[in-house]
Amino acid sequence: MRRALFMYVCLCEGVTDNQIRDAIFEGCCSYRDVRTTLGVASQCGKCACLAKQVVRDTLSEVQSSQAALAYPANFVAA
Ligand code: FES
Q1: Architecture of domain 8-70 in this structure
Q2: Is this prediction's pTM over 0.90?
Q3: Which of 11, 10, 14, 12 is nearest to 55 (CA)?
């Protein structure tokens, strides 16, 4: 689901939190992957902490939604 609001995480590269989330949903699975793909934190580096936090939050969101799919609440063994 795409969020209507966004914030810039990396001003040097013009990268938003939504772009970081999209990169993860499209296959990036670590901060390093996101950094390589989007160039976040590749200039002054001031955005590194926030970028890592967005990556961490998004990865845990993805993991919990995958867990929900693997074990649906209404699953009944026949
Ligand atoms: S704000 Fe991200 S590298 Fe400068």
Answers
A1: Orthogonal Bundle (1.10)
A2: no
A3: 10
